[in-house]
Amino acid sequence: MRVARAVTNLIEVFERLPGIGPKTAARLTYYLLHIPQTELERFSRSLVALKTETTECSRCFNVAESDPCDVCSDPERDKSVICVVEQPLDALALDRGNRFKGVYHVLHGVIDPLHNIGPDEIKIGELMSRLRQGFGEPREVILALNPNMEGEATCLYLNNQISNLKSQHPGLLGLKVTRLAHGLPVGADIEYADEVTLTRALEGRTEY
């Protein structure tokens, strides 16, 4: 039986998404095919708005509606404490409990030689520039990366880079580097952790 080209095209698009296999892609496509046209148009507009109505904060590189984002522009936030995360979803997860009052820096990845991702491919240089410029007089950098091999390698690299930066800039000598405590199990993703686990991890962080 010949399947309509519009159907196969959408199935192929869904299959490119992470975690979506052929069967799930087909189910999603046929689901959308049978919903009311108004709902389908709303879905289409939301997809377009995902690009046209969002921007990247020039300070923390999080996805936002404005630049700077609402966290960086919030006068109640402690600009001297910077929490470094891998992805925007990690910042969202840490902010859910309303316990962390600092700001974020989103790397948009981790060092992963197996996939040809080095320090220059993620926002490490931008973090060093941010610390060098002394915006908010940084006193602590929290390394909140996933406790896996790539996350550990990135944390080690960041700690070395910050140590070198401190030796070159006397004003940063008081800057300390900390890591989340072991409230997060090894191999887990911050994105899926519950609020209690994340709160304990933040409160129990130790100097790197």
Tell me what you see in this structure.
β5, α6 and β6 form a beta-alpha-beta unit. The mean pLDDT is 91. The N and C termini lie far apart (61 Å). The strands form 2 sheets. The chain has a 5-stranded mixed beta sheet with strand order 4-3-5-6-7. The longest helix is centred in the last third of the chain and has 20 residues. With 208 residues, it is α/β, with parallel strands linked by helices. The chain folds into 2 domains: 49 residues, RecR Domain 1 (Helicase, Ruva Protein, domain 3, Orthogonal Bundle), CATH 1.10.8; 152 residues, Dna Topoisomerase Vi A Subunit, Chain: A, domain 2 (3-Layer(aba) Sandwich).
Produce the secondary structure layout:
Layout: H1 5-15, H2 22-34, H3 37-52, E1 55-56, E2 63-64, E3 81-85, H4 88-95, E4 103-106, H5 124-133, E5 140-143, H6 149-168, E6 176-179, H7 195-203, E7 206-207
Parallel strand pairs: 3-4, 3-5, 5-6
Antiparallel strand pairs: 1-2, 6-7
Question: What brief labels describe this structure?
Answer:
208 residues; alpha/beta; Helicase, Ruva Protein, domain 3; Dna Topoisomerase Vi A Subunit, Chain: A, domain 2; 2 domains; five-stranded mixed sheet; two-stranded antiparallel sheet; 7 strands; 11% strand; elongated
Q: Give the domain tally.
A: 2
On the 0 to 100 scale, the average pLDDT is 91
Largest sheet: 5 strands, mixed
Backbone shape: elongated
Order of helices and strands: HHHEEEHEHEHEHE
Structural class: alpha/beta
* Sequence stretches where pLDDT stays below 50 over 5 or more residues: none
Number of strands: 7
